[in-house]
Amino acid sequence: MKIPTNLKYTKDHEWVLIEGEIATIGITHFAQGELGDIVYVDVDTVEETVEKDAVFGTVEAVKTVSDLFMPLTGEVIEFNEVLGDEPAKINTDPYGDGWIIKVRIADLSQVEDLLDAQAYSELIGG
Length: 126
Description:
There is one protein chain. By secondary structure, this protein is of the alpha+beta class. It has a single domain, classed as CATH 2.40.50.100. The protein is built from 4 helices and 9 strands, in the order βββαβββββααβα. It has a 6-stranded antiparallel β-sheet. Strands 4-6-7 form a 3-stranded antiparallel β-sheet. The relative contact order is 0.26.
């Protein structure tokens, strides 16, 4: 299973790409595999500040709906509009075109609480 080493991870199976004060967030390959075919992504928090660990949206798969948890406090500045028409991008390219949101990070010290690739791999039994 692919776990990119340039990303950070959460115990809730989100990945985070840190670029300065902007974080790009999606769900991991492991998470999309557990969910199955994703048919809808709902994010209604654009232009809102969302606290760490709060729900920022949901993904709907054929059999379940799963909450998406914010890994870092910040303002949601962009939703990946491609997912409106092609939610399955999360299944086919979870670390690329399947990203979900971009966030302006409010507290960069929270990055230290995220998992690195090795710790995430251990979490999922890799």
